[in-house]
């Protein structure tokens, strides 16, 4: 039988969940992977070798007990697997869907040497989706409630990770967000073909049942002041992300037809979900020749959104080579299958056009000396200019920390790049220079990943419990 076979990884190859055909999926905003059937999940989970020192677990930013829950899945014990998986991760069904597994857990799987890594992310997603469908909920029966209340600013993965730790320890988190739904970039950023929105709606209901209170459509600094939170609550956690748009700094960036990546994606989400306040915000690229500038997750999501809007062509230009792209390799492959063309080693120098976009002027690059982060710097090849015709250009160069005017008056220090100073190794984990305020996620690390934001939120939650003496 399957359970008695220690060489499962040879007999059964790596099998990702079934993917819809590119032709079908490029017309719809829906997840592209089908769920695993129980037999498939068990068979894939059973491929795990149970290494003595599991590298996958070290590499996973939240240090999931991966081999342990893989074993439970191979035995068909889904509810226990869900309980175990929630011991380290507040959003396992989300991380299973959107983590760049190829450079995290699966990248370090021993079977990666020729046999194909265990499909860790897909099994992680399967566990929670299946457990919820079976009616499982996190076990809160042993919680001893305190009278402590903590304000959490931001319902993104960092804020939700923090709220999860607090509520499981009897502290009531009250989570404020300026948007009408929880999730942060999971809802208002990442498109439905990677993460369908009902996943976050279900998570909101689960958190509410656990005792988390949400105050949505409420912006701190506008609708409610930070001073009021500091007065009313025992501590404050900030998980507000990074939202300052990075410009290219070249001519033509203001021409009609040039779009900012996140504005474009959010307008599309709002349009699809019916959250649209002003129909004029929606940008349809139907029938247009689109050029996307950038090579990260955001650029990839713009490429694939434009394809689904029936753009006639979508070309993604990136200044380094394919090997050095920051985004997930899986999503680059998916984009290519759906019809996105890639131009590597190209840097934009201008958007061309009289009163609207007509093209992008690009120069070729080659990789030179490493920069301060060890990544090779692209150098321009002289005399290599070319013009790529376009009707629309999307700029996806990333984000910088948002300017928040109430930081300084509240003694919250930032570093020279505007990131909040808070570390795992202070007196209390992720405490800022104001002892009552903690912070984590993108606003501390700079734009990064869902799973690292979850980790920092959870660690900050532990820090707050220590600070409150709970
Ligand atoms: P956010 O998710 O940004 O959440 C911050 C929340 O704070 C928001 O809801 C915001 O409304 C709220 N907020 C801010 N200011 C206030 C205020 N004053 N009052 C009230 N609320 C406030 N990562 C991956 O791992 N995989 C991916 O595939 C991936 N794809 C991505 C695609 C796109 C388009 C983008 C932009 C990012 C992507 N990322 C991906 C990165 C990931 O989404 C972020 O790293 C992660 O969401 C950061 O979490 P956070 O909680 O720190 O911040
Ligand atoms: Fe892998 Fe991400 Fe899950 Fe960790 S959280 S096991 S890195 S998919």
Automatic annotation (TrEMBL):
Stretches assigned to the FAD/NAD(P)-binding domain: 149-457
Domain named Dihydroprymidine dehydrogenase: residues: 25-133
GO process annotations (BP): glutamate biosynthetic process
Pathway: Amino-acid biosynthesis; L-glutamate biosynthesis via GLT pathway; L-glutamate from 2-oxoglutarate and L-glutamine (NADP(+) route): step 1/1; Energy metabolism; nitrogen metabolism; Nitrogen metabolism
Catalytically driven reaction(s): 2 L-glutamate + NADP(+) = L-glutamine + 2-oxoglutarate + NADPH + H(+)
Coiled coil region boundaries: none
Top-level lineage group: Bacteria
Cofactor: [4Fe-4S] cluster
Signal peptide: none
Keyword ATP-binding: no
This enzyme's EC code(s): 1.4.1.13
Keyword field: 4Fe-4S, Amino-acid biosynthesis, Glutamate biosynthesis, Iron, Iron-sulfur, Metal-binding, NADP, Oxidoreductase
InterPro entries to which the protein is assigned, alphabetical: DPD_II, FAD/NAD-bd_sf, FAD/NAD-binding_dom, GltD-like, Helical_ferredxn
Gene Ontology molecular function: 4 iron, 4 sulfur cluster binding; glutamate synthase (NADPH) activity; metal ion binding
A Pfam family recorded for this sequence: Pyr_redox_2
Function: Catalyzes the conversion of L-glutamine and 2-oxoglutarate into two molecules of L-glutamate.
Protein name: Glutamate synthase [NADPH] small chain
Organism: Aidingimonas halophila
């Amino acid at each position: 039988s399957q359970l008695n076979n220690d060489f499962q990884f040879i007999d059964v190859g790596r099998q990702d969940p079934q993917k819809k055909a590119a032709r079908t999926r490029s017309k719809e905003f829906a997840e592209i992977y089908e769920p695993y059937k129980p037999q498939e999940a068990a068979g894939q989970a059973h491929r795990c070798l149970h290494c003595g020192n599991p590298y996958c677990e070290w590499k996973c930013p939240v240090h999931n007990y991966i081999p342990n829950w893989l074993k439970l899945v191979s035995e068909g014990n889904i509810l226990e697997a869900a309980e175990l998986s929630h011991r380290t991760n507040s959003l396992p069904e989300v991380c299973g869907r959107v983590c760049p597994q190829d450079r995290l857990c699966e990248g370090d799987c021993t079977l990666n040497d020729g046999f194909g890594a265990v499909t860790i992310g897909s099994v992680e997603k399967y566990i929670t989706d299946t457990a919820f469908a079976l009616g499982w909920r996190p076990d809160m029966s042993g919680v001893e409630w305190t009278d402590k209340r903590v304000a959490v600013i931001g319902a993104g993965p960092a804020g939700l990770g923090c709220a999860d730790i607090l509520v499981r320890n009897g502290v009531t988190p009250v989570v404020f967000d300026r948007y009408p739904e929880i999730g942060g970039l999971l809802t208002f950023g990442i498109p439905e073909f990677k993460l369908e929105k009902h996943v976050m709606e279900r998570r909101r209901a689960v958190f509410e049942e656990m005792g988390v209170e949400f105050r949505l459509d409420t912006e701190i600094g506008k609708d409610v002041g930070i001073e009021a939170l500091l007065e009313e609550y025992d501590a404050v956690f900030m998980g507000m992300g990074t939202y300052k748009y990075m410009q290219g700094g070249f001519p033509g960036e203001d021409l009609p037809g040039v779009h900012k990546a996140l504005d474009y994606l959010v307008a599309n989400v709002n349009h699809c979900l019916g959250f649209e306040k002003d129909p004029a915000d929606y940008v349809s690229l139907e029938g247009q020749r689109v050029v996307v500038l950038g090579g990260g997750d955001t650029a990839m999501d713009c490429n694939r959104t434009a394809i689904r809007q029936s753009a006639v062509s979508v070309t993604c230009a990136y200044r380094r080579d394919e090997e050095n792209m920051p985004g997930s390799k899986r999503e680059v492959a998916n984009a290519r299958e759906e019809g996105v063309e890639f131009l590597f080693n190209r840097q934009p120098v201008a958007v061309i056009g009289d009163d609207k976009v007509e093209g992008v002027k690009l120069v070729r690059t080659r990789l030179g000396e490493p920069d301060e982060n060890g990544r090779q710097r692209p150098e321009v090849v002289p005399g290599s200019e070319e013009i790529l015709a376009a009707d629309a250009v999307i700029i996806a160069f990333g984000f910088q920390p948002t300017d928040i005017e109430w930081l300084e008056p509240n003694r919250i220090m930032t570093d020279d790049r505007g990131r909040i100073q808070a570390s795992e190794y202070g007196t209390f984990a992720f405490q800022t220079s104001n002892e009552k305020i903690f912070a984590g996620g993108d606003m501390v690390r700079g734009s990064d990943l869902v799973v690292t934001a979850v980790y920092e939120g959870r660690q900050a939650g532990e820090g707050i419990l220590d600070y409150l003496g709970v």
